[in-house]
Structure formats: structure tokens, C-alpha cells
């Protein structure tokens, strides 16, 4: 029987970790862009739009990510849309991320004092101008730490995509365990890889928070 | 007493005319049919107890509060609650707030320039020149690049005044603009307002500075329970109040 060295295991895991990183990045970037749109609709002075976005956000916050993934992966093909594990994972995580980021950012927009809206309104600025030049720049400052903090959730969230057969680091861990029968070692390494990805993110979220608190 | 003879000919059309303004918050009626006229160049102070509806009235004049009934006319433009063109209205009506409400992420100069740029679409050079002029007018030409957090309360409020003035409004509304200031900073703001009054700016202010009201204002309006129950020249109102409510208010304020 072939003997796996530690390096064999680790190098295979690290190769798979590339997909974890790539999937996280795609989900975060696309989810961020979609999140901005959801946010703008969520706080727009238009009742129906607000309600629709509230529903969207609550739907994704109120169901497990795994269910969302299953729906995208198994239900979409029923409607004739072909999905590979790759696209299903990317789509589901993007939707999930957009809902959470929109909600985080809504809190930041609402933390901007009412007086800022009133002062800019008194200067005859339109809603869009108020948002763009007065409210969003201020919301952005307070949004940075929780946004970076949430990126940790995205990275960890990619683990569930292993269930639909997307080979990221968790799935690679399972496959290697099946070949090596060393679950403790393999999953230990998988855990370390996640930690190495996430810890710098949470550290920088904390540092940013401290820095912005001092600046204010 | 050069201020006293700023009185306007009675035939002049009022710059601001309020007719039968009504406003409720839920089931509480806060403005119960207010009529008022402000002539061009006039300085009018609103006084009254806290909760009498002064802020609500002032805020309804630039559409920050939506009125339930009545008509607001500014500079000949009629605005009723159903067909209100807020942008046109707000270009004519500037407002300064108790809490300054400067944009904290922008410098003093940028605060003043922002609406010139995005609302009035003036080019960079024109914005800059207008902002410098406005800040110099309030004595803060040297603070163009300072952020609000680097300014004292009095300085912040003067930047807020400059920001409104730069938009060249027809009338400036001031809602207790010295109430959030430390006592030693009140005068620097009041003297800016006094200077505006002398230059003929139309001003409508809510204030608790009675001495200022007496010296600077052409007319005084006393609000009580959502109505204007007395109005006239300051000296008359202070010295010969006609209603027990005003007598009590004057006594209370002067006892302080
Ligand atoms: N947004 C609001 N919602 C509910 N009630 C309000 C609101 N704003 C003001 N009021 C009430 O309206 C009344 C008048 O308030 P205001 O105009 O601020 O009075 P003043 O400026 O004379 O102190 C007060 O009783 C106040 O509690
Ligand atoms: Mg008030």
C-alpha cells in the first residue's frame, strides 16, 4: 500500500484551498456588488421595494446556507438551467453574501444621524445626491470593520459546498481521509488552513475598528 | 438704531407667507392654523415655550415637515402640500440647525462647496471662490481646510451659516442656532447673524436670546400651543404683553 507523506497530504490540501480562496473571493466580490444594489433598494424611499428587499434579506438570513445551496444545485436544473457544482456554489454564496452585507450596510446607513439628511435636504440636494455625497461616505467608514469581519463567514461558508461535490479544501480533506485513513491529521490540517485564511481577516477587522474609533 | 428704520413699506409683497398652516403628529395637533408673513429684508424672531411648535413651523417652511393643511408661499411661488416642488423651494430657503449638522467627512470649504457643485452645478473655480467668500464673511476664511472636528462649536455653526449663505437663499431659517453652544461661544455666532441682518438678509429665527431679539429683530412672534398668539415689534411685546401667556413667558425668561 502506498504511504502518504505529510507533504503529500498538505500539498493536496493546499491545491484544493486555492478553490476555497477563489470561491470566497467570487462570492465576496459578486455578493458585495449585489449587496450594494440590495442595500440601495432596501433603504430607497419606495415602500414596495423596501418590503421586497426586506423579504429577500430575511429569506437568506432565516434559512441555512446548506438549504440555499441545495435549492440552487438541485432545483435550478428542474427549471431547465444546467448547474455545475462550481456555478451552484458561486451563485448560492453570492446570494447569501449579498443578503448579509446589505443588512450590515443598512445598519451603517441608518447610523448616519438624521441631521445629516436634514442639512443636505436643506441645501436642495436630491435623495440620490444625499446618498452619494453625504450618507454613503459616512456609512462606508463605519462599514469597513464589520464587512471585513463578515468575509470570515464567507470563507467558512464555502465548506458546505463540499456536499454538492465541489472540491474545495473540506472536500479534498474528505477524499484524502478516505485514502489515508488518517482523519485526525487530515482534518487537523484542513482546520489549520481555514484558520490561516480567517485569522488575518478577523485581526484586520479588529485593527480597522480600533483605527476608525480613534479617528473619530 | 439704524435697524429700526429697516421697516418695509406695507404694500410690499411678503417674501414668506404662511396661511392657516396645520400639522399633526399622529393625533396630536402641533400647529393649529398659523398665519404669518415675512417681508423681504425683515428679521423676525419666534419665541415661545419648548414644545409650542416653533421648530415644526420653521421646518415646514423648507419642507422638512410635510404640512397637513394650509399654504406656504415663498417668493411668489405657491407651494401647497400636494404639489410641493421641494428642490425649487429649498433653493430659496436656507436653514441652520441647532446641532450644526456639518458633514464630518468634508472640510469646512468642502462643506460649503458641496451643494454648489452638485446642486447648482457650478464649476470648480466658481465653487471655490464662492466658498472662500462665504467663509470669509463669517470670519473663517483661514479655516477652509479644517475638518469640523477641528473646529469649536461656534466655528462649526459659522461654517454652517456660510454653507447656507453660499447657496444665496432668499430667506434664512435659524432654529435655536446658539442653544448647543457654550456660553462664551454664543456671541461670535450672534454677531454673524447681526451682520446678516444689517446687510438686509431676510431672517426667520427661533431664539431664546431675548436681548438679541430685542436689539436686532424687526418683529417678534410669540407661539403658544401651536398658535401665534402675539406678534409685533419686540419692544412692544416685551414691555406690554397683551396675553397672560406672553407676560408669564417674558417674566420667566427675564428672571433667568
Ligand atoms: N417628529 C415628531 N414626532 C412626534 N411629535 C413631534 C415630532 N416633532 C415634534 N413633535 C412634538 O410637537 C410639539 C412641538 O414641537 P417643536 O416644534 O419641536 O416645538 P418647539 O420647537 O417650540 O420646542 C412637541 O410636543 C413635540 O413633542
Ligand atoms: Mg425647537
UniProtKB/TrEMBL annotation, chain A:
It comes from the Bacteria. PANTHER family: BLR6398 PROTEIN, MEMBRANE COMPONENT OF AMINO ACID ABC TRANSPORTER. The keyword ATP-binding does not apply. GO terms for molecular function: transmembrane transporter activity. GO terms for cellular component: ATP-binding cassette (ABC) transporter complex. The chain crosses the membrane at residues 20-43, 55-76, 184-203. Belongs to the binding-protein-dependent transport system permease family. HisMQ subfamily. Residues 17-205 form the ABC transmembrane type-1 domain. Keywords: Cell membrane, Membrane, Transmembrane, Transmembrane helix, Transport. CDD domains: TM_PBP2. The keyword Protease does not apply. It is a multi-pass membrane protein. NCBIfam families: HEQRo_perm_3TM (TIGR01726). It is found in: Cell inner membrane; Cell membrane. This is Amino acid ABC transporter permease. It holds the Pfam family BPD_transp_1.
From TrEMBL, chain B:
It is a peripheral membrane protein. Signal peptide: none annotated. It is found in: Cell membrane. Residues 16-250 form the ABC transporter domain. Pfam families: ABC_tran. PROSITE patterns: ABC_TRANSPORTER_1, ABC_TRANSPORTER_2. One of its GO terms (cellular component) is plasma membrane. Keywords: Amino-acid transport, ATP-binding, Cell membrane, Membrane, Nucleotide-binding, Transport. One of its GO terms (molecular function) is ATP binding. Belongs to the ABC transporter superfamily. This is Amino acid ABC transporter ATP-binding protein. It comes from Azospirillum griseum.
Amino acid at each position: 500500500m502506498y504511504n502518504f507523506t505529510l507533504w503529500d497530504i498538505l500539498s493536496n490540501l493546499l491545491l484544493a484551498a486555492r478553490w476555497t480562496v477563489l470561491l470566497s473571493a467570487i462570492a465576496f466580490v459578486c455578493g458585495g456588488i449585489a449587496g450594494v444594489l440590495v442595500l440601495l433598494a432596501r433603504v430607497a424611499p419606495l415602500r414596495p421595494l423596501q418590503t421586497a428587499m426586506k423579504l429577500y434579506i430575511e429569506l437568506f438570513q432565516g434559512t441555512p446556507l446548506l438549504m440555499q445551496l441545495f435549492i440552487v444545485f438541485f432545483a435550478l436544473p428542474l427549471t431547465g438551467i444546467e448547474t455545475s457544482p462550481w456555478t451552484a456554489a458561486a451563485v448560492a454564496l453570492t446570494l447569501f453574501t449579498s443578503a448579509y452585507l446589505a443588512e450590515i450596510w443598512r445598519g451603517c446607513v441608518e447610523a448616519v444621524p438624521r441631521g445629516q439628511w436634514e442639512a443636505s435636504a436643506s441645501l436642495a440636494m436630491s435623495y440620490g445626491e444625499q446618498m452619494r455625497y453625504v450618507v454613503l461616505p459616512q456609512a462606508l467608514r463605519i462599514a469597513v470593520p464589520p464587512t471585513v469581519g463578515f468575509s470570515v463567514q464567507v470563507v467558512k461558508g464555502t465548506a458546505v459546498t463540499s456536499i454538492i461535490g465541489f472540491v474545495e479544501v473540506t472536500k479534498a480533506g474528505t477524499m484524502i481521509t478516505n485514502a489515508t485513513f488518517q482523519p485526525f491529521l487530515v482534518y487537523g490540517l484542513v482546520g489549520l488552513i481555514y484558520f490561516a485564511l480567517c485569522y488575518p481577516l478577523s485581526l484586520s477587522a479588529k485593527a480597522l475598528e480600533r483605527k476608525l474609533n480613534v479617528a473619530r | 438704531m439704524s435697524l429700526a428704520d429697516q421697516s418695509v413699506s406695507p404694500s410690499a409683497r411678503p417674501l414668506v407667507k404662511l396661511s392657516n398652516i396645520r400639522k399633526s403628529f399622529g393625533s396630536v395637533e402641533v400647529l393649529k392654523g398659523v398665519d404669518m408673513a415675512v417681508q423681504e429684508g425683515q428679521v423676525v424672531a419666534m419665541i415661545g415655550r419648548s414644545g409650542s411648535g416653533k421648530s415644526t413651523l420653521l421646518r415646514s417652511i423648507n419642507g422638512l415637515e410635510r404640512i397637513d393643511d394650509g399654504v406656504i408661499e415663498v417668493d411668489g411661488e405657491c407651494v401647497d402640500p400636494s404639489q410641493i416642488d421641494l428642490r425649487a423651494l429649498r433653493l430659496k430657503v436656507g436653514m441652520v440647525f441647532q446641532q450644526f449638522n456639518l458633514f464630518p467627512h468634508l472640510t469646512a470649504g468642502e462643506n460649503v462647496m458641496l451643494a454648489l457643485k452638485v446642486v447648482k452645478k457650478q464649476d470648480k473655480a466658481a465653487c471655490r471662490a464662492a466658498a472662500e467668500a462665504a467663509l470669509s464673511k463669517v470670519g473663517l476664511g483661514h479655516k477652509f481646510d479644517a475638518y469640523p472636528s477641528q473646529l469649536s462649536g461656534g466655528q462649526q455653526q459659522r461654517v454652517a451659516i456660510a454653507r447656507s449663505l453660499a447657496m444665496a437663499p432668499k430667506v434664512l431659517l435659524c432654529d435655536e442656532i446658539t442653544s448647543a453652544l457654550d456660553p462664551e461661544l454664543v456671541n461670535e455666532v450672534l454677531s454673524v447673524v447681526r451682520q446678516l441682518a444689517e446687510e438686509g438678509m431676510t431672517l426667520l429665527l427661533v431664539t431664546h436670546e431675548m436681548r438679541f431679539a430685542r436689539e436686532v429683530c424687526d418683529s417678534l412672534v410669540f407661539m403658544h400651543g401651536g398658535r401665534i398668539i402675539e406678534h409685533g415689534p419686540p419692544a412692544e411685546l416685551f414691555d406690554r404683553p397683551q396675553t397672560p401667556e406672553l407676560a408669564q413667558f417674558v417674566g420667566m425668561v427675564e428672571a433667568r
